[in-house]
Amino acid sequence: MRMKEMARRSGVHERSLRYYEQQGLLSPERLPSGYREYSEADLETVRRIRCLLTAGLSTAVIAQVLPCIRDDDGRLAPTCPNLVGQLRTERERMTREIDALRTSRSLLDTVLDAAPRDVLSRAG
DNA sequence: TTTCTTACA
DNA sequence: TGTAAGTA
User: Membrane-crossing residues (predicted)?
Assistant: First the structure.
């Protein structure tokens, strides 16, 4: 299938599909015209990519993860031992980000708590 | 008409 | 990420 159908079937914008390819996540065939020709396997790959992006992984990490993952009726499972370690590392990174955001929110709360009543009454 | 690449905001 | 230009 070509770009338009792939975008429709996968629910991913054409722009994003080209971006995934640019990042090495996808490599559809090329027609003599230069047009991309996507396979059903590519469609599955895109579904996995979306799943992994939702899991908060970067495209760089996903590029490494994709060849090392199995798909049990829609549920992704790692098939390489080293991948498990890498995913744990990603999880730790997320935890640090969450902690950083908690700190930011706490500081913001402090600022908001300092707002005078007259200002609060006129605020949205 | 559709898709391509490249480039800029 | 969205969009526009200029092609094949």
Answer: none
